[in-house]
Write a sequence for this structure.
């Protein structure tokens, strides 16, 4: 039987067997709002708490190394990933992440071997994945309906299996950041000098590209293709305005990302707002950025 958009692979079915009811109940008790007594809101809350630190941590390097276009190219591979998954009878969540990682690693590999600028190489891959996704959805009309949900994202549809994958990714990513944060800064500012000081430059670049691709795909499910780069860039940019060191920028980015995500989710669920969660999260992050810009300006005065 084909595995489509809502189908589950054996791995996802096994993950879904883990009961997270106690965690969702704890969220409902901790936040005494009527809307937070609904299980889908409790799942969404846990999901953004897991995703926000990952976006913040990876966003620091995205801002410092000017890789926002890289995240755009990876995020737009979502269309092609969904199309491949539906046509090949695969779980689209796996096909999206798999293709995103492949694109991220290919961009990194080609960038090391080509005389072209990295922006040019990313632009070629960006064009290729978007063109492929559009060509497939044009030829196979039934795919269009299933790909449209990834344009805007919907954190309210997240399930226990996605939460478990996010938790696993968060552990791996934070472990990588703990070990390699300073080395990544070194590689980003001067890869030649980093290599001369025995930093495994290539390994760090490939691992970072793969992890960033996975974070981008989870962000696509949350805020959609159009806003995924903002999920990475805006908290990190705010942190850069507020921080006085590279280390404090990391922690400021997490504070901005987590508070924006929680506030955006809760505001979007209020009857007086009734907005989509993803855009509201980004708007809250933009308010943080506006405030941080004022702080940065006052420091220079």
């Amino acid at each position: 039987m084909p595995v489509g958009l809502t189908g589950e692979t054996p791995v996802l079915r096994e993950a879904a067997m883990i009961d997270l009811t106690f965690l969702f109940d704890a969220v409902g008790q901790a936040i005494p709002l009527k809307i937070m007594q609904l299980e889908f809101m409790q799942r969404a809350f846990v999901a953004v708490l897991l995703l926000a630190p990952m976006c913040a941590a990876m966003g620091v390097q995205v801002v410092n190394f000017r890789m926002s276009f890289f995240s755009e190219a990876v995020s737009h591979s979502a269309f092609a990933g969904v199309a491949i998954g539906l046509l090949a009878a695969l779980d689209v969540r796996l096909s999206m992440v798999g293709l995103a990682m492949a694109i991220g690693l290919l961009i990194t590999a080609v960038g090391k071997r080509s005389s072209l600028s990295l922006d040019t190489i990313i632009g070629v891959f960006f064009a290729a994945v978007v063109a492929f996704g559009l060509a497939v959805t044009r030829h196979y009309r039934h795919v269009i309906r299933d790909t449209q949900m990834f344009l805007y994202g919907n954190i309210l549809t997240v399930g226990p299996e996605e939460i478990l994958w996010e938790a696993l990714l968060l552990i791996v990513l934070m472990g990588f950041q703990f070990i390699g944060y300073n080395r990544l800064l070194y590689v980003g500012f001067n890869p030649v000098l980093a290599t001369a000081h025995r930093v495994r430059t290539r390994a760090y670049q490939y691992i970072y590209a793969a992890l960033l691709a996975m974070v981008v795909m989870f962000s696509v499910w949350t805020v959609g293709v159009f806003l995924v780069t903002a999920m990475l860039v805006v908290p990190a940019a705010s942190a850069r305005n507020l921080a006085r060191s590279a280390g404090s920028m990391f922690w400021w980015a997490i504070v901005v990302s987590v508070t924006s995500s929680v506030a955006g989710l809760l505001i979007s669920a209020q009857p007086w707002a009734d907005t989509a969660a993803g855009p509201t999260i980004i708007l809250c992050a933009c308010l943080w950025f506006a405030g941080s810009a004022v702080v940065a300006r006052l420091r220079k005065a």
User: Anything to note?
Assistant: The radius of gyration is 19 Å.
